[in-house]
Amino acid sequence: MTKMLASVTGGEEAEIAISAGADIIDLKDPKAGALGAVATETVRHTVAAVAGRRLTSAVCGDLPMQPETIRARVEEIAATGVDYVKIGFFPSENVAACSEILQPISKKKRLIAVLFADLAPDFELLSRFAADGFHGVMVDTADKAKGRLLDHLPPARIPAFVDRARGLGLAVGLSGSLEAPDIPRLLPFAPDFLGFRGALCGEGSRTRSIDAEAVKQIRALIPEEQRAGRASSVDYRLLAARGYAPGGADSALGTDKIFVREFVLPVEIGAYSFEHGHTQKVRFDVTAEVLRVTSHPEDMRHIVSYDLIMDGIRMIVARGHVQLSEALAEQVAAHVLEDPRVVRVTVRVEKLELGPAGVGVEIERKRAKQQPSALHARHDHGKKGVIS
Ligand SMILES: O=C[C@H](O)COP(=O)(O)O
User: Fold this and answer.
1) Domain 251-376, CATH
2) Residue 138: partners with Cβ closer than 8 Å, 6 or more residues away
3) Tell me, what's the ipTM?
4) Class of the 3-234 domain?
5) With 60 as the cut, is the pLDDT of residue 374 above it?
6) Which whole-number Å values give the CA distances from 44 to 105, 163, 339, in the listed order?
7) pTM of the model
8) Could you tell me if the CB of 28 is within 6 A of ligand 1?
9) Catalytic amino acids?
10) For the chain, which residues make up each domain, given as ranges?
11) CA distance linking residue 154 with residue 173, whole number of Å
12) CB within 8 A of 305, min separation 6: which ones?
């Protein structure tokens, strides 16, 4: 299951994050940069105070890409007893050398390579990290003022990154100014962890202190593993909605309709030869009938996000040429029905450049009774279980 990583500045914030349910306590000084490091002594004390109640990690700072500087710093942080050491790899011709020099340390400490979605990350580096014994790879953002992870690494590009990392045996983390609505969009990729700082702080400002209420709200959106000695805070309705558990929403509450209208994308589509090798504008209109889980919807736990529909369409379109509008509509309908709360979906696909206005197809599909959730299937595949 996906773990929640909370970046904290020291022992006091660590306790807040622990009591609000974070799985990984990550030491970081947000005032000192994207991967700003806290004092090594603070890492040591906090790790000792956490005392195995949670996994711990620490960043090494926004270091120059100089192999010897990085090696020395990673050794210093590793010696604190922290479980994971996170190392930022900024674009440089020295990246391979900086990774390679860490080989001996990676044999005794779990290292996480951090790439930055807003700095044109080179995912070819993943095989370098795997060869050098890294435990995992994480994507973050370097400039927190310039957008969230999904602004730089859109959902359609995430499967390629996740699949590649998984194929190399690397754990996968996603972060970068993530906010609550990003969580249901990222969970289907089954990352090993999602990392947060800004969303846990007062007024969403990552340089303020973390706030217990904000941590709890984020925690509630990530299905939680049962932890010994802790009353479970699992929201079973959420789990059901994500396909992690049998059961479903309260049918007595009936359904709502969510919709996406006039969503236009360039698509490689068409059966004629003149339609191959280039894109044409296609308009999507989708309405999904969703089971309600509460009569008082308050946050992301209680809804099916229309972002999931748009993300799905983008991912399907990114797979390449499709011959028929009908086939495209079927794929979109199947994707939307993967959410077990969707009972019926209408999909209209219109090519906008072939006729006076639009030409296309509209289909309606219902969830077949007892149809096993595709999300079940995805998660049953464990680490390989990502949308492709
Ligand atoms: O490791 C994760 C981060 O600390 C993310 O920080 P952020 O949510 O402020 O971008």
Assistant:
1) 3.30.1130.10
2) 86, 112, 113, 114, 115, 172, 173, 174, 175, 193, 195
3) 0.98
4) alpha beta
5) no
6) 18, 34, 43
7) 0.83
8) yes
9) 28, 86
10) 3-234, 251-376
11) 15
12) 181, 184, 185
